[in-house]
User: Fold these one by one.
Assistant:
Number 1:
Amino acid sequence: MPTPAPDELPPGLTAAHASLLALRDRAETRRRLVTQASAPHTPEETQRLVQELQVHQIELEMQYEELLLAQAEAENARGQYVDLYEFAPVGYFSLSENGLIEQLNLCASQQLGAVRQRLVGRRFALFVAPAQRLEFGQFLARVFSSEASQSIELPLLHEDGTSFYGHLEGLRTAMPNGPQCRLAVLDVTARRRAADALAASEARFRKLFTDSSDAVVLLQGTQYVDCNAAALRLIGARHREQLVGQPAWMPAPEFQPNGQRTSDLFQATIAEAVAQGSRRCEALMHRVTGEEIWVEAVLTPIELGGTAPLVHILWRDVTAARAAAQRLHDSEARLSLALAASQTGVFTWDFGTNEIVGDARSQEVFGRQPTTGPVLVEDIKTSFHPHDLARVWGGLQAAIAVQGPLELSFRVVWPDDSVHYLHLAGRVVANGQGHATGLTGVLRDVTAQRAADEELHYKNLVLERMLQKLPMVLTRLRPDGTYLESVGAGLASVGILPGSLVGKNVHNIFTTVQPELARVLHGGQAEFLAQIPVAGGPPVAFQNYAFFDEQGHQVVVLAVDVTVAEQQRRQLQVEKDFTQSLLENSVDCIITLDEQGRIVVWNAEAARYFGLSTAQVQGQPLLDVLPDLGQYTEHELARALAGDRIDRFNRTFRQRPGRYDAHLVPLPPPVGNASGGVLVILRDVTERERLAEEATQQRLRQQQEVLAAILTTQESERKRIAEALHNGLGQLLYAAKLSLDKSAGQPPAPRESVRLLEEAIRTTRTISFELTPGILEDFGLRTALEALVKRIAPARLPVHLHLRGLEQRLPAQVEIAVYRAVQELLNNVMKHAQATEVEVHVAHEPKRLYVSVEDNGCGFEPAVLAAEPLVGIGLAGVRNRVALLGGELSVESELGRGTIISFEVDV
């Protein structure tokens, strides 16, 4: 029978299907020929027909193998497409003309922050920022009205309301149910934020450039390309055109005061700035009015990738600074003349004659009678202290060698053997040839000042060490309360920097000590404690001693940090209050006994236990207050007083129903005592014991339920196997028997019998595989799950299997439990869910196995399932298997929205 042409096929019949029908017709024809009576044919013809049938059988088997290969290739290609589509880093949506989401990939659901089942059928515009939904509608209209792709950037929303920027690419596609928009969404939030940050940075730079109080110009090549208002004010210009576009040396004279051409100076400075990264120079420039000004310029090149770099130039007017420097130079010259003419003592040393000529004061400081003539240097050297002579002479030689200034302090011995301290300051004088010819300087006797300085230095050193090492503060105030000084290590404890209070008024800072300070500021003295608040911490306590100085010009306040002592005092009180609060609010009965067994502490719970108040029992022996405790308790109490810890559990109350635990803890003895007391703690454990008993009963009930579920599951499995053997294998074997019985006395019909026997064998293998999947034991969970999915025909239920981390074998009990769980969940989907697609995920991570089965079926109410008891079949059986592995089954379902069943176990 020839295969019909594609255009002659009935509706819905593919070419492949037609080819299979043609092969079946040919096979039926051959079968009729074989089963016809062989009387009209010779044995040779019968043999030929049998051989032809065998040839056709081989051809059919070969064609069947080719079909299987083609099917495997098609499934592989489809799997690759699904992986590319599902795990692409771009969100893909399929939208209807109304903007409804008909299909989306995994990335798309992650972008919108929801599972796919919740997104399918919803309007995409709901995930667009409200202000841009009209713009999105216009974009969707352009997509459906054009053949070309359309793009747009919009702020989108996650399901939780948070936003992100998306780049949308849309293309219209013709589908059997009408046109559809294929929409690709790329998250461009990071790029948009970077662009916004760059724009903000440019705006800040422009504002800084424009509003800067310093004069700033931009130079490219040798021309100004931009400037700010401060630059125009600096040169006295009114409009930018007076500077922008002009050469760099425009607002300057042709030559600088040193004779260098201004254009050469500017070009050389720009070249050095480009080469070195920065350059500074000073130049004489002109205002627009012609006034000369000195300008300091700092040049910084900015590389823009062009041929000529952009140079950022900061101008500062240094005219006044240069004039001040000149005035300072003149002042120093006048000061030198004044020192030479003063009575301090001026001398001149001529290196050529080695003689010193000095005034009377310069000779008196050596203890000599003044003379008008010169004095030999050798005579002066005899007056130097032996320990200082080498140092002074070395300093003189060093100054002569460098022809620099000289300043020395040294000792001299007068003729009466008294030691005096002298200070020498001078400078080496050189001739026109640069040779040192002498030394000119001044001398001053600083003996008295040195003694006073040493005494003051010692006292200051002692005070400084005290202030540096001890938590003290020394403060000096004017009579009006203004700070003159405030130093000391104690300032750090209140977060005040040394010197930061100078110039401020004490009344505005420390208002809590105004009465004491007012008394001192009026000429008195006071000793008082001040609490200084500290931000973020407790106040600091200072003990202050304040008094007027002897001259009556200022107030001196010495403050010592006594915070630790105050804190210790407060801490003791807090600890006492806290201990008392713990005792009174404890849920346990707490009793403290002294070394003689008398009650010291009796908390509120003890009063509730025994119905006696603290006042009634304090100071009384415990056994006198509670005689019902008996001799046994007296013996235990004696052991506790001797140092043994006693613990007694689950005792029965005598005063009321219930049970309690008793703990007798020996307390350390006070200093000088041989023994301490005892801490008695009684804890009511009635409720704890009741809960423990209930928990034991609950575990027994759960174990009974699990055992019942296992037995029920076993019986159900046996029943299913029996039905499979009776209805499947038994029926096939019976049909084969009937086929063989019919052929009795007739020519054999092996084809039909063989087919029935092959079907019986296949059914037997199926039952065997379901009972004990040997592929699981031989090849592991990955291969077993793949085989399980292949056994479910795609026409019955398309199953998408996603496996990760199953390259290594897992424990046998885990593999069989997971396999049975997935098998049972897929059976439930096929029986009850009315689903068209199933996703199976099995992922193995270190020490953890994750399993989930997701379908798009009719769903159900999980609350109804949770209320049902364990019956040993369906989800209850899966829940039992997971519980035995230490996991917990999670069910997420909604009517009409599909079901997700997942669990995870430790491996």
Number 2:
Amino acid sequence: MNAHFSRNWALALLASGGLLALGAARPRPVDESILQRLARQVSEYYATVLPEKAYLHLDKPVYATGETIWFSAYVVDGLRHQADSLSKVLYVDLVSPEQKIVARRTLRLQGGRAYGDLDVADTLAAGTYQLRAYTNWMRNAGDDFVYSRRLQVWAASPYTANAPPPPAVRRPVAGAPAVPAGRPDVQFFPEGGALVAGLPTVVACKAVDANGRGVDIKALIVDDRNAAVVPNFATTHLGMGHFAFTPAAGQHYRARVALPGGTTADYALPAVQASGYSLHVADAGPDYTVEARYQGPAGAPVPGPVMLLTEVRGFLVYMAPRPIGAGPATWKVSKARYPNGILHLTLVDGQGTPQAERLAFVQNGPAALPAALTPDKTGPYGLRAPVQVKVRVVDAAGQPLAATRLSVSVVETALAGLDPTAETIASNLLLTSDLAGYVEGPGYYFQNPTAETARALDDLLLTQGWRRFVWKNVVSGQPVGLEYPADQALALGGQVLSEHGYRPIPNSQLTFVETRPIRQVTTGVTNAAGRFRFVGFDGRDTAIVTLQARRAQGGSNVVIRPDTGPSVENLRLPPLPTPPVPVADFVKRSRQQQADEHEMDPSRHPVGMVTRNILLDNVAVTAKRVAVPPDDPRRLYGATGGTVIDFANTPSAQSGLNIFQVLQGRVAGLTISGSPPNMSIQIRNQGTPQFILDGMRVDADVINTLVSSDIQSVEVFKGNEGAIFGGTGGVIAIYTKRADPKYKGADKGPAPGIVTVRLPGYYQAREFYAPRYGAPTLTTPGPDPRRTSLYWNPTVRTDAAGEATLTFFTADVSGTFRATAEGITAAGQPVRGTATVTVQGK
């Protein structure tokens, strides 16, 4: 871990105006030492936690079932935003609306960069999905700080049985209420943290509907006598807004919110405190004016001077002490002194205790440096014509920026506009990556800087809050708990718990058995928190590992929970919105593109419509046929017609034999050889069959580790029966008791004391289809499948002149396409640029 601390996390303090320098040679007053201590504690905190951030640039903003998500990953240190050197492994997950991880990629990071692709399987349902990316080290900050993005996925695949037609566009009904039916969730947040009697206060509001989307409201604020203290309040953007008033002692304030249908609902504001501090921040152009006030108990002495500590991404500046009590304490905070990002302002009393906090945003110049994209033609391009685009990146002074790393996509303009306020690399690194919780439409705050967007951004910061650190943890002096190490290579971690999964089991004896790609056995012991971690995987192939755990006293009544990443249990994803007009055309184009891709490369859809819904003829068998529900969700492709062996009612299967031992002699044409745990199986001497465990393809090594008493049934597909799965060796499908929701008496928890894990190797990204036309060929070119995305390049790098040149060909469709480049400079500045490419057929 020593290498982790080699970074130069310099504590930046400025010495001019009302600022105090850390290294002054003159004697320091007590007040200065308090600020100095707080600044040191914050700096030490950051030097320990070494925050990381991840961002994924996608080829397009929305997707359809059956398509591929192409992504380019950027992992940077959380303070300077320079390429990260801490972690070497990145995980990318696609989470379904049903809170299941439906696709995962494990990527090797090199200099904070990686790229890959994820298939949105044609068997998935349309809906709102979540894409997330994280390193193991990032998880120390909590699940709120892994990269996440919501994706709209529309039904389009021609290979989905009974695929619905393109969605019809539902137009809004004239006069329909702006607020959806039902009572919204409305919360109020006093600026600085509290309502204090007699102190003028700004109060921010956030209203969301049942799906977590912002919903604008109108309300009046009333006191205990139902007198309106704020008669006309309305949110202004995505259910957020603010108002100002002075709370009175002993009063309880409520917001009376107008609901659809003419009804109202009351929401309580936070309770009024008799004494305390307030903090108000006003935007004064190049500066922020900060005002602090204090209201104390009657007759109590006026407290000592207060201080202001400010911070942007670890860049700390503290302000000179100011007296408070008879009048407000004020400071002028120059924006020019800080890097772009969230400004964290903390009011500190004379004892060094934080009393009030406020977030603001600092933006000196554009949020992202512009990347100039220049196509080689100003007019339209023909079909299957070459396109050359020059990319150039310079700094604010016009100097070229070499070694800027970029990714570039070219997609249909209407498609690119389906999510116009989607996040960008600038909105992520400067804003959402430092806020807990979901931020709706983050791109809005940086697209067109105006007074309106500045106010909306301020309302967001007043309501969304700050979570990078909590002051009581920073000033406590307690060491920071870092549960997850930084991965330098692939690792298998997890926790051993009591049989009901509640209590960690320390000093548990672990046996590690790897059967693929190599065979090895080792042992280990869990730590005080019951956690374990095995390292040393080369990452070239999927590893099959069986773990067996025992208590220190020898008992096996424990549960092994492998670490599968951040939790998805409490994830709430909203339904798809009413489809905008371009969605129907997008779905139509996507469906045709997938059909063309299948024609060019049938292996992309090996099952296909020709066999997916065919009823297989019965085959004479010697084993008894047991009814397995045709609608069982574990049936891959819904396949039926195989020979089913009922393990649950077979006496020999209850003895704990190997699965292959129980099958031996029970199915005609099944040849089994070897002895446990190295048994092999063939169907009609046609090679090794495919194995499917509860609807998921696995290797034979996994099946060799299963105990027959845990199996409900096994289904054997021979010859034509197995054609639906592809391949010629047949299929053996295993259904466990634990995975069957209807199986009576099944223990739904993990198997006690043993678990088998598939640890995928590093994913090898596919190449985006990029044909080159013009050269003579022996065969007639087939259809060009590219209809929505023309080009994707995840690894563009500028040269010494700050330039890069891209070349690609148009396809068989006319239209307007948007080229988008995103990336980051060597110094950590976000970069973004767009251009238009027009294609016109003859």
Number 3:
Amino acid sequence: MVMGKKLYHGAAWYPELWDQSVIEQDIVLMKQAGMNVVRIGEFAWSNMEPTEGNIDLGFFVQMVNLLHQNGIDTVMCTPTPTPPIWFTHGHPERMYVNEQLQVMGHGSRQHACTNHPYFREKAAIITEHIARAIGRLPGLIGWQIDNEFKAHVSECMCGTCLVQWHEWLEARYETVEKLNEAWGTQIWSEYYHSFEQVPQPGPVPFLHNSSLSTMYQLFSMEKIAEFSDEQAAMIRQFSDAPITHNSSVAFSVDNERLFRELDFASFDTYATYDHPANYLLNNDLWRNFKRGRDYWIMETSPSHAASLASYAKPHPNGYLKAEAVAAYALGAEAFCYWLWRQQRAGCEQPHGSVISTWGKPTVGFPNVLEVEQARKEIEATIVETLPTQAEVAMTYSDRSKAFLKTEPHQKLNHRGLVTSFYERILHLGLHRDIVPEGAELTGYKLLFTPFVPYISSDLMKRASAFVAEGGVWVVGPLSGGRTEEHTMHTNAALGELEHLAGVETIYTFPMDGSGSIGSAFGVAAPLSLWSSVFEPKEAVAVGTIESGLTPGLSFITERAYGKGKIVMLGSMPTGEEGEQLLNKLILRYADDAGVTLRTDVTAGTIVAPRHGDGREVWVVVNMDGAGGSVTLPRDGVDPITGTVYRKGQLTLGRYEHKLIQFTAR
């Protein structure tokens, strides 16, 4: 963050859908609502290029200038999620093909194959024209590439992708013999004699080879990131404004790879008010994709999400403000809505908006005004401080998302598993970062790596160095049991991880329904999920299995390593007792690691610590609508109102927030 910057509050706007009188009305209403940024252009390819080669950006130049004249900045989008009819009609070879080999038709969005060379060519041309026309305009503060990559689609099965798949495989394996060996293709006579024989994971009677399925997902993730890279490189020729993409943990992308070549990270979220952990996880993760650069919430609903097919429950009054304050406190530079004016046509007509199609405030409008009031009040404090790095981190892995899509066991998915584990850390009052696999671990004291089937040698190296310097690394459950190619280890159940952790894995099997009870930290609990059962070697047993198929063996071990320790969690405790056991495990190793950045904040309320210029500030926000409390370690003062807070318990009401600047130690 650059000190002195402002906080942004804005929305997605589609002026191309409305006449001049509505546009003028929108500008007036935006100013009344305090909007200081909008994003435009993401679905407007047919407006910009109604017939092939006939490109006119005059309307959007006019819009950027009009917004700027009215004190509103612009994020310009490339319109590539919605290629026009001239691109699609009569050209099925250019279209996305799903895993049932159904060819998509025109309309909706993401209907084209983003790997098709003609799509890439036309996307580059329209993006170059937009960047030339708009890239230096006053008021342009950023770019968004495309919109929600792979939100409605995942791996394309078209002929173009098949050819590129074979090229990708040859670059990765060099010879088909190496691929056959890596994938174990002698099973079920899958052996290939050339790369051209390797299929896509389309329709089959049972299941695909795990390597084929997972590698195709990784291929797809790499290809969409390459498209993003191409778009960014084109824009940078004509504009210095920073570039992002609005992504999500729910989409079929590798976000760490995607943001590698972008300037700042942003995400879309439609978590409902009764699952604040789903919302907060995104903030704690996106803060760490581009270290040292504030992230954006590019989309969230001012009231509710909806489409022709579904709707979500609307936010209660007060919740939107809590979301916004929490985001700004946790490191967001912007809090933006989808969308400004409700759409009068199309598949998302019922979606929550700031203004209705008929130009009147919606049910969410009063809450938008509350957000704007809060933004203005906290802005000076937020821009003069920085989020404090957590001492506790948890690994997030989109590659693991692919592994668990291939091998979901009982319909498990990485996002759900990680969110559930994260929620425990959150509710225990530990300030935390969610970090991508490749993140540096400097500054952390405690690292959790659950639900990562393949632990790369790079992560193993960084984590072991982290432990050697005094960190505590808690690994598992469901971590380390697969190779890079999504096969099983043959030297040990968990490969090199076992040697590092000082254990031998005696068995791996699903604990559910086996009657297995594990005891640790004075709590006995049922064990679940696909589990690893250990015999300690250089490690010591911390959790022991008391009943079931493997009594006497360990499901939790720890090994002293350098100045720190490695803890293996081989199975997932479940039920009420399981929650107690996991909470005790988290707190035990937070104590062992010397974690100090923690509070006794009640579940449903968060503390976001910030610092800067010798200042230490807590932003405390109630997120669940039930109120909460936290103990202040010393006297403090509200930097906005001057209210003095004494050391001791601080109570918050429903969706209330407070800023506390502490006095010097």
